[in-house]
Amino acid sequence: MTKAQDIIRPDVLAMTSYPVPDSTGLIKLDAMENPYTLPADLAQHLGEHLAGVALNRYPAPRPAELLAKIKRTMNVPAACDVLFGNGSDELISMMSMACSRPGAKVVAPVPGFVMYEMSARFAHLEFVGVPLKADFTLDADELIVAIDEHTPALVYLAYPNNPTGTLYDDADMERVIAAAKQSLVVIDEAYQPFAENSWMPRAADFDNIVVMRTVSKRGLAGIRLGYMAGRPGWILQFDKVRPPYNINVLTQATADFLLNHLDVLDAQAADLRAQRAALASEVAALPGMTVFPSAGNFLLVRVPDAAVAFETLLTSRVLIKNVSKMHPLLANCVRLTIGTSEENAHMVAALKKLAPN
Ligand SMILES: *Cc1c(COP(=O)(O)O)cnc(C)c1O
């Protein structure tokens, strides 16, 4: 009898699946979801729109109208093409697969988004992490040393970075892009609605960058849609490894509909940016807590003891993310997603229980 152990790759056998904790009954502030749903009347209209979708047909593999609409509404430069992914996670996986030549490498700052490394490993690419500075700004000099040494296929720069929230300095980014002449630099703007800064207008200005985004953090994590903009020469190649019908008809129809109502999502993002400022000053005022500047819909906070903080908040029914074991630079750090003002108030009340009295 065949056993999985005889067939599955040893590195896969040794792994555990991506952990998603059970959040039943909890205030879920661990995964950078937008706490707001759609207004009831808009949801009603969306439902009517979705009722007309032909579920019996395969989705369009390269939906021209939706791609054009994204280009228009997201200010994608005319010289760029766009590629959709089932979440930007799938785009990362497609890039890894397409670049997986023997000996190919990926360089990215660490701590950073875990899927860069995971995807690289799955595709047999070597991952080289370059530590950020202790204040989580980019160590451009060290990154450039690593790029020179390893000549990676891909360099990831999350703008802003997860889990630190750091918006890297543009001049540092320019130096890295200039140094990475033999690489593709992927600028990951998953948190763009909260950053308000973007490289998208410059996506066609360099022949070695693509700009990647997702609708997940701005309120549509459930539909799984990411997109990537870049010069046609890149998009053409990555499109070849795209699973044939990767964006389902309901996701396409939902995106098509909601791109006509971006004002609703933009207002939610503006509200969350204001909540972020309020939460940052409240948490920073608590003894023993350091809040790092964040351009995302989350805050990275150093607490006296991350494990105690996680458990104390859980006791108050608040689920956060303990990132303290992800990287030595994150010692005793937790990541708090920005919720509604009520949720945030609940979280602050729970954090106050941690303060020495
Ligand atoms: C959440 C996140 C993503 C993945 O987004 P999906 O579109 O939901 O797959 C990509 N990059 C960064 C930095 C993220 O934080």
UniProtKB/TrEMBL annotation:
Its EC number is 2.6.1.9. Pathway: Amino-acid biosynthesis; L-histidine biosynthesis; L-histidine from 5-phospho-alpha-D-ribose 1-diphosphate: step 7/9. Its cofactor is pyridoxal 5'-phosphate. One of its GO terms (molecular function) is pyridoxal phosphate binding. Coiled coil: none annotated. InterPro entries: Aminotransferase_I/II_large (IPR004839), HisP_aminotrans (IPR005861), HistidinolP_aminotransfase (IPR050106), PyrdxlP-dep_Trfase (IPR015424), PyrdxlP-dep_Trfase_major (IPR015421), PyrdxlP-dep_Trfase_small (IPR015422). Pfam families: Aminotran_1_2. The modification N6-(pyridoxal phosphate)lysine is found at K217. Keywords: Amino-acid biosynthesis, Aminotransferase, Histidine biosynthesis, Pyridoxal phosphate, Transferase. Belongs to the class-II pyridoxal-phosphate-dependent aminotransferase family. Histidinol-phosphate aminotransferase subfamily. NCBIfam families: hisC (TIGR01141). HAMAP family: HisC_aminotrans_2 (MF_01023). This is Histidinol-phosphate aminotransferase. It comes from Candidatus Paraburkholderia kirkii UZHbot1. The gene is hisC.
